[in-house]
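Quick one, T. Sequence first:
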Amino acid sequence: MQSNHAGVRARLEVDERTRLSPLAAFSDAARRELEEDESPVRTSFQRDRDRILHTKPFRRLKHKTQVFIAPLGDHYRTRLTHTLEVTQIARTVARALRLNEDLVEAIGLGHDLGHTPFGHAGESALSHAIGSSFRHNEQSLRIVEVLLKNGQGLNLTREVREGIYMHSKARRDITTRAWGNASTLEGQIIKVSDAVAYINHDIDDAMRAGIISDADLPQEVIGLLGNTHAERINTMVCDLIDHNWWAAGEGQAPDPPLIAMSAAILEATNALREFMYQRVYLTSAAKEDDGKVRLMIDLLYRHFLTHPEQLPDETLRITRERGEPTERAVVDHIAGMTDRYAIKVFNDLYVPRTWGA
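Structure tokens:
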């Protein structure tokens, strides 16, 4: 008796070819580094999404800082909620432009897996500790290619791995290492959606923290983008759809094809981003603990470098099998910590215990 689910994947792949734009990335053309049997019910990009979703690094994002370090309030964004917001914004754009939502979702869910504890403050602190630039997008790629599944990696498709790696500004191509953007329009959508999400939700969180108010926002920019969080996101998303309608297979595509905002909305978005850097990211009360983060990360790095036997066995094994130095294992271990776990390890190592009666 033939199974009811036989041929589901094949039908999904045919549906993609029929429904999506000719400029979309198609799952039946995706390739992995290592060949493997296909799923009978899921496309390649759907499998990649599921593989990322079920990982420990993905679950740890719920306890990693977005802007406000180790927030006690339930309503502040974390790295996980940021990831979900980026993914949903990107899916809305992709669906409207007849691009591959499954690819967008896989990239979106995986793009920030490599973030350190304490957000960008932790990233800067780890860079300081190792004496070179630590980039979370590179660590995200390392997680899915090397660290997961006991050092085997997830064997994701090239399109997903490239999108994860190239989501940050000024990133190098995954193969040629040349500066640029993802080769898929879906990967490019994630890059823009990342900025749309963090600019707007960070404004929301900064207001919640009392650092800025509605009156502080640049009024000319707000007049164009919208007075509320929802209005501003809607303006940016609708602009992305309207300005890139060629991606849906309607009209002439630019050469090279590049997902971007219109000039006016981009200028306003950049002005809002610059406002956030000046008022929140670089100078506000949200940055007051950055020095403490640097001290904590620096001490943790020195400790594990001196005592590598205290690193997880699996982390040490992977680096040794790959012929990598101990420093690499230390970076992997610290980068994988959540805010609260890093604080716990630091307290265990450097804060005297108190004794009860």
